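User: Please check token order:
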Amino acid sequence: MALRVLAHFAPGDRITEFLGAHTDWLDVRYCAEDDDDTFYRELPDAEVIWHVLRPISGADLEQARRLRLVHKMGAGVNTIDVDTATRQGVAVANMPGANAASVAEGTVMLMLAALRRLIELDRATREGRGWPSDPSLGETVRDIGGCTVGLVGYGNIAKRVERIVVAMGTPPSAVLHTSTRDDGHPNWRPLPELLAASDILSLHLPLTDQSLGLLDATALARMKPEAVLVNTSRGPIVDEIALTEALRARRLAAAGLDVFTTEPVSPDNPLLGLDNVVLTPHVSWYTVDTMRRYLTEAVDNCRRLQEGQRLQNVVNAV
């Protein structure tokens, strides 16, 4: 009998074509993330959920009577009630590193867009205000190679970002990082020192009790007023109210944000009204290449489940 999979995303042609080679043993049912009617209709029969971002609660899991595996299409499992899954004997797996290349490139894209005032210049050009050039550009816009880049968290994505900015001219000695403890690397700095030194600060850490609200008003006040903050990790790591106030008062030059405290972003979120913020809707990971890596790993774990083999990258004890 085919393994029943609830893929919690809307597929494109490339996805359906890739999975078409496995229809003899995989029965994949698709559900857009905002389609709760389909989700709750399919949930009781699902043996596997391919999960992206829409949270899976304990109440959801209790309705999934046949569920054996929740496979996160990504690394962070904070959107899954792992404790309930564990109690019910449901494995939770993730894909560490599968999106690292895409998120790293998306991070540098946001760095450049914020640092080079891309949104402001795009708007001015469209409105016929691009010439003569704004003289403040020569006082504010920086090369990445001339910046000290601070990385908060030093995992797969952060290390890829490091390689990219070094290739763009940033001296290796000017790429600093911090993590939960001193890792012995000569460029490790405690967080307060990292905040004060960075021209670009980029966040690359999971959402935990320790990282929740890590960049609050006090932390942001340590940063240079000409600094740029980039967040492609998780929104609640940053106090959005404090960030909005810092950006509005120009105590921080700019921000590039792919993640937010509440997603989808509310239309009245004050960050949307600031001209020194570049925003994308949690898609830095979302490329053809990442999706192919995700699907390859997801199909492999489904085959392992079907054949009674040990699953890869399980994060809970079941």
Observations:
- The chain has two domains: 3-98+287-307, 100-279.
- The mean pLDDT is 96.
- The CA atoms of residues 32 and 291 lie 16 Å apart.
- Residues 100-279 form a domain with the Rossmann fold fold (CATH 3.40.50.720).
